[in-house]
Amino acid sequence: EAGVTQSPTHLIKTRGQQATLRCSPISGHTSVYWYQQALGLGLQFLLWYDEGEERNRGNFPPRFSGRQFPNYSSELNVNALELEDSALYLCASSTGQSLFYNSPLHFGNGTRLTVT
Amino acid sequence: AQTVTQSQPEMSVQEAETVTLSCTYDTSESDYYLFWYKQPPSRQMILVIRQEAYKQQNATENRFSVNFQKAAKSFSLKISDSQLGDAAMYFCAYRSSGAGGTSYGKLTFGQGTILTVHP
Questions:
Q1: Does residue A5 contact residue A93 with C-beta atoms inside 8 Å?
Q2: Do the beta carbons of residue A9 and residue A112 sit within 8 Å?
Q3: Positive or negative, the Cα torsion across A59, B107, B21, B4?
């Protein structure tokens, strides 16, 4: 069974540009989560999508946005990049809302975003 | 909002010995789920063990076990017979069982504990 895949592995952008990160969940998983892991700050919840809809979002500005496609893959967009957006962005998937409480999140290897 | 606290930024253990990682959480809910994840240098977060709050019995997965103290809101991880491959960052995480609200569906993580295993 293929795990959660994220692309690209590394991304280098200049301040003010836009970044697009992609995630493919495990087959059969309908929920996709995005987390930001900045140095020394642990994992901060960004967004949760399930069945194509945004179900919850963390305390991040609107320039962090995303979407989930009909095949349940997801895209995270970060507009007007700032230096402090440099971080590891982790995507995770799990089964859908009706089952997820006890089902763990399965994580990808992350995208390392560097803003210069 | 729920918070998760890991008070040990770093821990070390000798190979084959036992180590305990601490985690406390703050919640007003009675039903929830707790998890321990490890993140090795490869960056991929891997589930180590999980515990349902309504279960009194502590979860065990091979060399990994937890000490779940619901009244104290404590959820420590014990690693027995430590191996070099256990070296990683360990995260404690909380998930609400309630629907709706700002906590809906998300895992809240602690700051992590870096575990070093000495040969």
A1: no
A2: yes
A3: positive
CB nearest A56 (choices: B50, B52, B105):
B105
Q: Which token pair is B80?
A: 């027995």
Nearest to A45 among B52, B106, B110 (CB): B106
Q: How far apart are CA A17 and CA A59, in angstroms?
A: 21
Q: Are the beta carbons of A102 and B102 separated by less than 8 Å? A: no
Q: Is B7 on the interface with A (CB under 8 A)?
A: no
Interface of B with A in 99-118 (CB under 8 A): 102, 104-112
Nearest CA distance, A116 vs chain B (angstrom):
22
Residue type, A85: D
What are the residue ranges in chain B where pLDDT is below 50? none
E-only strand ranges, A1-116: 5-7, 10-13, 19-24, 31-37, 43-50, 53-57, 64-68, 74-78, 87-94, 106-107, 111-115
The tens-digit pLDDT sequence of chain A (116 residues) is 689 999 999 999 999 999 999 999 999 999 999 999 998 778 999 999 999 999 999 999 999 999 999 999 999 999 999 999 999 999 999 987 655 566 788 999 999 999 99
